[in-house]
């Protein structure tokens, strides 16, 4: 779609980005006088019932949540056969982009982690588990607010186990591919790596892995191959945090270790 074209009741402003499942556009909502983000499933995948289901699941899960640390969803539908979701437009960077320059200051890492924890707690209270928390799915706005993105892999705790067992393994961030496990290598919990059902504790584990990376600048379970990374998640403990070098409080180190237990 090009700038100025109409998409339902919205006017396309510009392409923001594209990923494995679709494209994201900046658009204008003339009725409310605000700019929004529109995520559209690529035509090549729109006929794939599983992908569309995953896309709609993301929208419904996020729309069920109303919290300042979770991306707000405004609308969902189909336009000329292409499923789409309309959400708030964010200005800033993903946590992954912030971490590209190295570890965060301890105070900044704490501020981000508190906001992530609040968002996850709100989701868990609604019976929703993210199951794919990672730096690519954490957005930091220009004014320092943290937003959790992409509940596409979320599971309603009371969902049918046969549906909950649907899975995807990420081969390259931020895209995911159908496979035997659900989550992203390096952040998935041991039960996810084994292909077992996951509950809110999987998010706590991923939160610990993200906090570890914010504090150390390296991934907790990074190995040379995907298989080795999965083995490390199941079997190994991450290297000790650089407590003395970065003046990380011992209590914070214990918190990270507790999350990764």
What labels would you give this structure?
261 residues, alpha+beta, Phosphorylase Kinase, domain 1, Transferase(Phosphotransferase), domain 1, 2 domains, 6-stranded antiparallel beta sheet, 3-stranded antiparallel beta sheet, 14 strands, globular
What does the secondary structure layout of this molecule look like, with pairings?
Layout: E1 6-7, E2 10-18, E3 22-29, E4 34-41, H1 43-46, H2 49-63, E5 73-79, E6 82-88, E7 92-94, H3 95-99, H4 106-125, E8 128-129, E9 138-141, E10 146-148, E11 155-156, H5 161-164, E12 168-172, E13 175-178, E14 183-184, H6 190-193, H7 200-216, H8 226-235, H9 243-246, H10 250-259
In short:
This protein has 261 residues and is an alpha+beta fold. It is 36% helix and 25% strand. It has two domains: 6-88, Phosphorylase Kinase, domain 1; 92-259, Transferase(Phosphotransferase) domain 1 (Transferase(Phosphotransferase), domain 1).
Description:
Helices cover 36% and strands 25% of the residues. It has 261 residues and is of the alpha+beta class. The protein has a six-stranded antiparallel β-sheet with strand order 1-2-3-4-6-5. It has a three-stranded antiparallel β-sheet with strand order 7-9-10. The chain has a three-stranded mixed β-sheet with strand order 13-12-14, with no helix packed on it. Helix 4 runs antiparallel to helix 7 (200-216) and helix 7 packs antiparallel against helix 10. The longest helix has 20 residues, at 106-125. It is globular and about 55 Å long. The N and C termini lie far apart (47 Å). The relative contact order is 0.11. The model is unreliable at 158-180 (pLDDT under 50).
């Amino acid at each position: 779609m090009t700038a100025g074209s109409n998409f339902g009741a919205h006017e396309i402003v510009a392409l923001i980005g594209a990923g494995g499942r679709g494209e994201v556009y900046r658009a204008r909502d003339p009725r409310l006088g605000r700019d929004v983000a529109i995520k559209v499933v690529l035509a090549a995948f729109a006929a794939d019932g599983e992908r569309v289901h995953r896309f709609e699941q993301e929208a419904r899960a996020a729309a069920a949540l109303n919290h300042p640390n979770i991306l707000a969803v405004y609308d969902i539908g189909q336009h000329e056969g292409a499923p789409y979701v309309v959400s708030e437009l964010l200005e800033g960077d993903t946590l992954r982009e912030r971490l590209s320059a190295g570890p965060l200051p301890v105070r900044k890492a704490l501020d981000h982690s508190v906001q992530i924890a609040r968002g996850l707690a709100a989701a868990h209270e609604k019976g929703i588990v993210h199951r794919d928390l990672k730096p690519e799915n954490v957005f930091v706005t220009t004014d320092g607010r943290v937003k959790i993105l992409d509940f596409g892999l979320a599971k309603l705790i009371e969902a049918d186990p046969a549906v909950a067992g649907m899975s995807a393994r990420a081969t390259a961030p931020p895209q995911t591919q159908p496979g035997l496990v659900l989550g992203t290598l390096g952040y998935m919990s041991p039960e996810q790596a084994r292909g077992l059902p996951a509950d809110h504790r999987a998010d706590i584990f991923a939160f610990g892995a993200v906090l570890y990376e914010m504090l150390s600048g390296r991934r907790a379970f990074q190995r040379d191959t995907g298989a080795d990374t999965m083995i490390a998640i199941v079997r190994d403990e991450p290297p000790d945090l650089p407590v003395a070098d970065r003046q990380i409080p011992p209590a914070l180190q214990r918190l990270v270790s507790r999350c990764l237990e």
